[in-house]
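TL;DR need structure tokens for one chain.
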Amino acid sequence: MTRAISEDLRSRVIAAVEGGLSRRAAADRFGVAASSAVRWLREWRETGARSAKPQGGDTRSGRIEAYRDVILEAVEKQVDITLVELAELLRTEHGALFAPSTVRRFLDRHAMTVKKNGTRQRAGTARRARAATRLVQEPA
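>> reply
TL;DR here they are.
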């Protein structure tokens, strides 16, 4: 994404148009697109703003945030619920379609990530150099 054009240049284009130049002539004079000059003048006349609008940022997470209480309640009821199950719950009960990756990003934003199980970490693989410690053995 490109940077916003400086407020100084915007002000000079607006001043040139207010001084009698056409929007296209002012745009040519300052080396900007005519469409930009048109938008800047429209914005300035409607709101008085000469500065650029904010760029970027998250524009879509608000949709899943509307179901915040539903998701958090489902996770509280069943701690080991999967992302696919959460997405399916939202689809069937609320008619909202979300990919499991969207649900994962939601949970990540709310600091609800799954941590590895200690038993799995201790068990290791067969090629591990040292023996696993404190394995639970069940009676035969």
